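REQUEST ID: PR-0412
SUBMITTED BY: lab tech R.K.
PRIORITY: routine
TASK: structure prediction, single protein chain
INPUT:
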Amino acid sequence: MKNAILSYATNARFEDFYRFIASARLHCYPDRVDIAILIDEIGPEFARVAVDHGVSLVPVVNVWRSARKSRLLNLWYHANMRAIRSLIRVAPTSQAGWIRQAYRHLVTGWVHPQAGRWIAYHEFVKVNSAYRMYMTSDLRDVVFQSDPFDGLDPGRLHAFEQDGIRYGGDNIDTDWFRNTYGADALRAMSGATTLCSGTVLGGAAEMLRLLELMAEQVEEHARIPLDQAMFNEVVAHRFDPTRLTLHGLKGGPVLTLTGDHEGLWEIREGRVEVGGRVVPVVHMYDRLEGPKELFLGRFPIPGGPAAAG
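STATUS: complete
OUTPUT:
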């Protein structure tokens, strides 16, 4: 039974798109792993790379980047959101579901892509529900060094620590959570280590449940669409803990390089290792010069200067 890697890539840069796909396909073979990129129409070179690497492109629409600075468009958007939510409350049961679907599409297309992607993922997995495991992943700053599904329990959701950041301290994650859920909810999270929303793996049932919960949160908090805060709230308080595995910085298939992690990782023989183990996925590799130089050199863009040289 195959696994699936999903990424959401509206307004993606070609070099990031290429590096993600090329590194994934080097280790995640088409007979074992399908890759689907949810993407807008941004150029034929993206389609050519997808065909060459056996990757499916799924069309999505998100106007956040072009509309976020328009006061008129944002007023229109939020007025429509309020109107549709009011209509849901008074609509007959037979029609409320259709109105909720209209609201969902409106939110997905207008909120920040990092939030809207969760609804798009949910819609995708509901239709493509026959995979063994799924990985949802950022695209811009993720590279693969081996197959991340190998050895993982397919009956659990797998989430990953980032840099030992804790809620309640002086950090952006604390600010994001407070802005989304308020000071009282933040106190309930005080001292908890933050988890990264950018890379998640899970079995079919577990991933579908996560996406359902995340979609609900995005729809509820569409005016403050901070998906990192929502993800941590869902994992901490809404997801079944008996179906959850939290991986620390030193374990699991994903290493998130949000800081130096002095002494945690090293580059040996052209690969990033932790404790002598090659990490299957390196996230935020572009934050540090060593990994950045390594992966940019390993996956030169076709036709670019490095490739020509």
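NOTES: The chain has one domain: 3-304.
REVIEWED BY: pending
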